Amino acid sequence: MKTVGLRNDDERAGRGAGAASSHAPAATEGHTRAAIVRLLLEEGPITANAIGATLGLATAGVRRHLDALIDSGQARAARSAPWQQKGRGRPAKQYQLTAKGRGSLGHAYDDLAGAALRHLGEVGGEAALTDFARKRARTIVEGIDPLDEHTPEGTEAKAEEIAEAFTGAGFAATTRKVGSGVQICQHHCPVAHVAEEFPQLCDAELEAFRELLGTHVQRLATIANGDCACTTHVPLLVPPNTGTPRSSNTPAAQPAAGQTNDSGRSGE
Phi-psi region for residue 171, left (φ > 0), alpha (ψ -120 to 50) or beta? Predict the structure, then answer.
């Protein structure tokens, strides 16, 4: 009976032990860096202390990884706003990914998708691009029923349902209460580079939000426009109808008069 591999196993037990131990820290470093990048993606801007508390890491070690990400252009830091500061002292730094950092996470088939959409536009024009973008957005939220009744609880729950659907499509979406509304935050966009050239993709997402929530929603920021996340504000309270009752043929959600940033490409 052959004993193939026994010699190699013995060698690994002796000579290979040092090599294994030298590679282990590198692997651990890589996993830690990836976890920090993921947190910057989903929670940024975020402080080094908050990252350390979430991941169970020493703040000094977290800062070392953050410094490396900043040196490589994948992250940036800024001082917290005064209202965000807890206690006395100098405002803490908050960190977030840059466009380069998000790009390192991968944008599959960007070149191919861009070429396909350019060809679609040449063949079918603006209408074909818009129709494609709408079908794509509706596919993401397929299975979600439109909101039946506007209550703060119901609207917030529907926003969370939409966020979950977009997370499943690779957008790392979350919701957060802000004042009298809730914000849908998409911390990653798998088609950001394509959306820079084809804003129809952003427009169609916003249209899908309106159709499901049955109210006016406002895009505050987009990754395609250079912001750290796509942020959409949803009011939890619908103002009473003080005018003429709306006819059945009038859409439930209408853009506000003079609003110029509903395209999904405006900054904060």
Answer: alpha
DSSP letters spanning 126-178: HHHHHHHHHHHHHHHTTTPPPPSS--HHHHHHHHHHHHHHHHHTT--EEEEEE
Question: pLDDT class for 45, splitting at 50, 70, 90?
Answer: confident
Q: 144 versus 16: which is more confidently predicted?
A: 144
- Amino acid, res. 268: E
Question: How long, in residues, is the chain?
Answer: 268
Query: In whole numbers, what is the pLDDT of the chain averaged over residues?
Result: 78
Check: CB of residue 188 under 8 Å from CB of residue 107.
no
Please answer whether residues 198 and 220 qualify as being in contact, where contact means their C-beta atoms are separated by less than 8 angstroms.
Answer: no
Sheet with strand 173-178: strands edge to edge: 173-178, 181-186, 230-235, 218-221
Which has the closest alpha carbon to 109: 190, 4, 209? 190
CB 252 within 8 A of CB 220: no
Instruction: Give the burial class of 199: count Cβ atoms within 10 A of its Cβ; 0-12 exposed, 13-18 middle, 19 or more buried.
Output: middle
Question: Model pTM greater than 0.85?
Answer: no
Select from 235, 234, 222 the least CA-distant residue to 187.
222
**Residue 221 CA neighbour count, 13 Å, CB half:** 14
Q: E strands within 149-259?
A: 173-178, 181-186, 218-221, 230-235
Residues paired with 78 in a beta bridge: 94
Q: Does pLDDT of 64 surpass 90?
A: yes
pLDDT beyond 90 at 56:
yes
3-state secondary structure of 46: strand
